[in-house]
Specification:
11 strands; 2 domains; alpha+beta; single chain; 171 residues; two-stranded parallel sheet
Length: 171
């Protein structure tokens, strides 16, 4: 009987690395990494008065998660219709509120306009009433802080497909 164990000893020694590798592989498939996100995604139907005062981004027409289905929206600023494109830098793992914005397609007086965020002021069954945070950027992509301003605006709820809300800590 002892002779049989002596014969198996080299086999057991050869199997140890395989068993260790198999154990690590199984453990790795059951573990998850933590993402780096400060955004929560809500359907428009979920937005109610509890969202008033919260910072948000609006996703227009089609869901633009992961940079797919990039939409444009026209906004009337200073009696001028300005077309904006959605900029979405989200991959499902690292989604930062500060990297989501609307940017003007054309320059206005040599500057690019960027809506960095919205704040929900109120809502009705058909309309979101918001404050837009509007920034101006020069040709070198430097923010012209002295030109930054806040603008009251409203959007029909039917134009919005999803709302990206800046999360509070531990939410």
């Amino acid at each position: 009987m002892i002779e049989n164990f002596k014969r198996l000893d080299p086999v057991c020694n050869a199997m140890k690395p395989f068993v260790a590798y198999l154990f690590l592989l199984i453990m790795g498939t059951n573990s998850y990494g933590q993402d780096g996100s400060d955004i929560r995604y809500f359907k428009v139907s979920q937005v109610d008065n509890s969202f008033i005062g919260r910072y948000m981004q609006l996703d227009f027409h089609r869901r633009s998660f992961g940079g797919l289905n990039i939409d444009t929206v026209s906004i009337n600023l200073d009696k001028r219709l300005v077309k904006f494109i959605e900029v979405r830098k989200d991959d499902g793992y690292n989604n930062w509120f500060s990297q989501q914005y609307l940017q003007s397609i054309d320059t206005i007086d040599g500057n690019i306009l960027r809506i960095s965020k919205f704040k929900l002021d109120s809502l009705s069954t058909s309309t979101f009433y918001l404050t837009m945070y509007l920034d101006y950027y020069d040709k070198n992509a430097i923010c012209l802080a002295q030109k930054s301003r806040q603008v009251k605006y409203s959007f029909p709820i039917n134009d919005i497909i999803e709302v990206l809300v800046k999360s509070k800590p531990f939410e």
